[in-house]
């Protein structure tokens, strides 16, 4: 249970969330501070009440401010958009309508953990008249957000990355998932030994193949090449290769990122060239997202990109904040990517001296006589020990006073000694006289504090649980979390030893089928499964200002925004939830299927596609054998007899019927139905 002294979690009225305020030239906003806080209408936040002793600072943090409106979480059911692109007519002669087949397959995508069918929301059931109902023989559980959650919390009020996951998993659906998750395990001498010795006992529709399992979790989606690489190199050697990304050659798609004009510019260059970039329609913060999407789809440094995505949720700075156009790409490059497989303490220290985080969480507004506590609080609550990590409100305020003086000038980090509070501080066991006016000494003291909380035992647990949730299960076994926390502490926050421990643990290999792809992950995996390449289709040309590659990446980003998840996309600093029940949305599920149809049709001409009739090199002559071959090509295993029958029903043929390479004209529909199966939704 959380320490009763830990302050309640509340939305912060900071500029990084609402995107309304810009810094002045030196990165420090002008505002009038009264004895009661910030005066309304002076660039600050009206509504502060109360005073502090005259000798102390005036607090400009979240206390006393009104709640900000927050967008409805993606996990909540949204109004269904219908099925504008879905093949929804039950054509004569078809045994199973395409809507019903997709519902039956896509709905059971949530069968995920153990036969506990979590899938279809009420909106989806409304679209499919004969879909299973809650409580029927299939055991389907409604996950429409109405189930009770711990402490009566709703996801919209949950603050931390880990806590929001736990809140969602407190639902009935979460309880069903937990029953099927591995409960314990042990560590082996290495990943290959763990894979060989671990028996998979959980219920799952996925093949219990360790190579496929590793490819599903350590990449953004298995491809024939990835599976072949793991088989050729072996599990241990493939992981060693992935853990040394600097030695992995860039792909053609990564080299084509040179077409994004803002990507290699420094913040100063972005400031200097702002007008020219605007005239060309260049949006640097969106190009950062575009580049991330390209790497997720096409980079061979897949484990590295998975870890970049993990840290972008854990140490989250939204790309779209006011200032993101100048600083977010540098944060991605110099903080997240630089340290993604390095040291988390070094990452957190670097983040706390980066303009992106200082602006996003208002540290530029904090000085000794007007302390803004936003960053100090999030450093404890989100980025280190966590809400249950043992800190108190006094710790938050002590940390906020210690961190005064940090700001931004001329687009760069700057320490302002005249703004820094001097006086003894004590935070979670860290203490320092904090008495030096020397800016180097004062700045180094803050660094030591940040490194201290990054190595706190509670941080070790928090990072371990988050990592286990990402790679293993929505309800990770305590045995694994404790083991990872010990590794984190013993290696002083180094990330590679954490991953080696993770992949050498039986809990990882026992958790086949225990994770469901979130919307962004589903879309990226679909591009990878279909072998889409970054070159433009024959005859396609870009517009006057953007190449086909630029246009195509932006279209993918726009689609991800429609689906509710895109890299660095969440406006609040807690990052996206990483559990399935946060993402049960009928509209999102159908939209993903429709996008698969777009790719199978090759409609986005900015890229090149494999024609669906050529996905299988030598298509079998009978429908049943063709479905088997296509399933192996797209989801790397055969479907069950029931699933296979549903797919055949889409084409209106029997298993023994003779078909040509186009599946008698139904190949795109058949392939899309396979991509709506649980085998593609699960990772």
Automatic annotation (TrEMBL):
Keywords: Membrane, Transmembrane, Transmembrane helix. Residues 1-94, 133-159 are annotated as: Disordered. The chain crosses the membrane at residues 101-120. It holds the Pfam family DUF1800. Residues 134-148 have a biased composition (Low complexity). The keyword DNA repair does not apply. Residues 11-33 have a biased composition (Basic and acidic residues). Coiled coil: none annotated. This is DUF1800 domain-containing protein. It comes from Micromonospora mangrovi.
């Amino acid at each position: 249970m959380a320490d009763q002294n830990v302050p309640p979690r509340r939305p912060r009225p900071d500029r990084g969330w609402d995107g309304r305020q810009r810094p002045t030239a030196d990165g420090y906003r002008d505002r009038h501070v009264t004895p009661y806080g910030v005066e309304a209408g002076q660039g600050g936040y009206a509504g502060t009440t109360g005073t502090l002793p005259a000798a102390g600072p005036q607090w400009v943090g979240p206390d006393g401010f009104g709640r900000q409106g927050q967008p409805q979480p993606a996990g909540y059911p949204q109004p269904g958009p219908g099925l504008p692109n879905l093949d929804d007519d039950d054509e004569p002669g078809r045994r199973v309508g395409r809507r019903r087949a997709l519902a039956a397959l896509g709905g059971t995508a949530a069968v995920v953990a153990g036969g506990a069918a979590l899938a279809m929301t009420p909106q989806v059931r409304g679209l499919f008249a004969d879909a299973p109902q809650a409580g029927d023989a299939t055991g389907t559980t409604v996950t429409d957000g109405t189930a009770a959650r711990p402490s009566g919390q709703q996801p919209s009020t949950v603050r931390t990355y880990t806590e929001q996951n736990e809140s969602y998993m407190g639902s009935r659906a979460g309880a069903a998932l937990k029953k099927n998750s591995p409960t314990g395990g042990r560590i082996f001498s290495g990943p290959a030994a763990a894979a060989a010795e671990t028996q998979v006992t959980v219920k799952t529709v996925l093949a219990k193949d360790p190579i496929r399992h590793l490819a599903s979790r350590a990449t953004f989606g298995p491809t024939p090449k990835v599976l072949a690489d793991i088989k050729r190199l072996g599990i241990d050697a493939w992981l060693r290769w992935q853990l040394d990304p600097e030695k992995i050659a860039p792909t053609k798609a990564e080299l084509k990122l040179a077409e994004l004009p803002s990507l290699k510019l420094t913040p100063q260059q972005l400031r200097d060239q702002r007008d020219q970039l605007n005239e060309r329609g260049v949006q640097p913060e969106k190009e950062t997202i575009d580049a991330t999407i390209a790497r997720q789809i096409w980079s061979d440094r897949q484990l590295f990109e998975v870890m970049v995505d993990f840290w972008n949720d854990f140490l989250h700075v939204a790309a779209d904040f006011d200032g993101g156009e100048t600083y977010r790409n540098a944060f991605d490059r110099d903080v997240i990517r630089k340290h993604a497989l390095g040291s988390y303490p070094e990452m957190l220290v670097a983040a706390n001296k980066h303009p992106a985080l200082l602006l996003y969480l208002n540290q530029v507004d904090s000085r000794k006589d007007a302390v803004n506590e936003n960053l100090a609080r999030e450093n404890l609550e989100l980025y280190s020990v966590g809400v249950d990590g043992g800190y108190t409100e006094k710790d938050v305020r002590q940390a906020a006073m210690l961190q005064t003086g940090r700001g931004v000038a001329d687009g760069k980090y700057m320490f302002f000694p005249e703004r820094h509070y001097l006086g003894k501080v004590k935070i979670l066991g860290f203490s320092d006289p904090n008495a030096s006016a020397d800016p180097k000494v004062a700045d180094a003291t803050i660094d030591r504090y940040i490194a201290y909380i990054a190595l706190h035992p509670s941080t070790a647990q928090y990072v371990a649980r988050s990592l286990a949730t990402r790679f293993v299960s929505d309800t990770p076994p305590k045995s694994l979390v404790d083991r990872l926390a010990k590794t984190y502490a013993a290696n002083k926050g180094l990330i590679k030893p954490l991953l080696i421990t993770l992949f050498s643990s039986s809990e990882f290999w026992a958790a086949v089928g225990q994770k469901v792809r979130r919307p962004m992950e589903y879309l990226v995996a679909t591009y990878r499964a279909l072998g889409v390449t970054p070159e433009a289709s024959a005859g396609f040309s870009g517009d006057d200002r953007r190449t086909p590659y630029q246009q195509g990446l932006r279209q993918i980003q726009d689609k991800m925004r429609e689906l509710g998840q895109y890299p660095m996309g969440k406006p609040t600093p807690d990052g996206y939830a990483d559990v399935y029940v946060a993402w049960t949305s009928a509209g999102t599920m159908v939209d993903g299927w429709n996008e698969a149809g777009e790719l199978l049709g090759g409609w986005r001409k900015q890229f090149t596609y494999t024609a669906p009739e050529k996905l299988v090199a030598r298509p079998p002559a009978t429908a049943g054998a063709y479905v088997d071959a296509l399933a192996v090509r797209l989801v790397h295993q055969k479907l069950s007899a029931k699933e296979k029958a549903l797919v055949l029903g889409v084409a209106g043929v029997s298993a023994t019927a003779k078909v040509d390479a186009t599946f008698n004209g139904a190949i795109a529909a058949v392939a899309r139905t396979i991509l709506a199966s649980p085998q593609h939704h699960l990772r």
